[in-house]
Specification:
By secondary structure, the chain is an alpha+beta fold. The protein has two domains: 13-168, no CATH class; 175-272, Endonuclease, Chain A. It contains ten helices and eleven strands.
Length: 273
């Protein structure tokens, strides 16, 4: 306004109106950090990035989300009357000082608090994926346990308590964690993660996402990268080596894990038998 720009001049393809009195260049609208900065301009004092938005700031991917929902998550003081809008999802829970830190200029919930908040809004499989990633990034299991002890009841407490013992920092992808939770819920034996397979002479044959060495069964989750030609060729060669060495190798994609989970469990159960 100080530069003489009027509202009507902002109504063009290069600018997105996020909310009341808030605009963002459309080229930046896909960036969570840019959307968060815009939201914080009109958020109440004490607002903090939280939940899935905080996870992004901590470098954690939250699977199984509705990708069309681009709202930013903020937690506001209990006394605030702020409401959710088209660009933000407002949460109201107590925020002790120890649960808030900063990522650069942005106030954000700590990784442990972010985990506890997400346990209240995500499915267990997604909570496991978040937990695995946090442990892999150096967050201590004991710190998560302390965070849960501080909020031992309420929304998500049972979910967090069920997921935490299953979490493993060796998991290398969120959908691998989702698959592991699927098998856990089905009552299958816990697999070994990132299992290295060698032949009788000690030569390296491959490394598997999930393995049951006593049954000679390997399970792989193939993400998008496995469609690339070089990766695809390497996968086939490795699979041939493993099968020739007597291993059963099962490979699944997100279409399998999300679209036909019962069949995935049944196939793995048959292989383990």
């Amino acid at each position: 306004m100080a530069a003489g720009v009027r509202d009507w001049q902002l109504r063009h393809a290069g600018v997105e109106r996020l909310s009341r009195d808030t605009y963002l260049p459309r080229a930046m609208s896909g960036e969570v950090r840019s959307r968060l900065a815009a939201v914080l301009l009109t958020a109440p004092p004490g607002a903090v990035a939280s939940h899935a938005t905080a996870a992004v700031l901590w470098g954690v991917e939250v699977p199984l989300q509705d990708r069309s929902d681009r709202r930013v998550d903020v937690t506001v003081p209990m006394t605030s009357r702020a409401e959710s809008r088209r660009d933000r999802r407002v949460h109201r829970t107590p925020l002790p000082d120890g649960d808030v830190t900063r990522r650069g200029p942005v106030p954000v919930t700590t990784p442990e608090r972010t985990w506890r908040d997400l346990a209240g809004v995500l499915a267990p499989a997604a909570v496991l994926a978040v937990t695995d990633q946090l442990l892999r990034r150096g967050v201590l299991r004991s710190d998560l346990e302390r965070q849960l002890a501080r909020r031992p009841t309420g929304r998500g407490s049972a979910r967090a308590r069920a997921v935490l013992p299953v979490a493993d920092p060796r998991a290398e992808s969120p959908m691998e964690s989702v698959l592991r939770w699927l098998l856990h819920e089905a009552g299958l034996p816990a697999p070994d993660l990132q299992h290295v397979v060698r032949d009788g002479a000690g030569s390296f044959l491959g490394r598997a996402d999930l393995a049951w060495p006593d049954r000679a069964v390997l399970v792989e989750f193939d993400g998008d990268v496995h469609r690339e030609r070089d990766v695809f060729v390497d996968d086939l060669r490795r699979q041939n080596r493993l099968v020739a060495a007597g291993w059963t190798v099962l490979r699944f994609t997100s279409a399998d894990v999300l679209g036909r989970p019962d069949e995935v469990v049944a196939e793995i159960r048959r292989a383990l038998r």
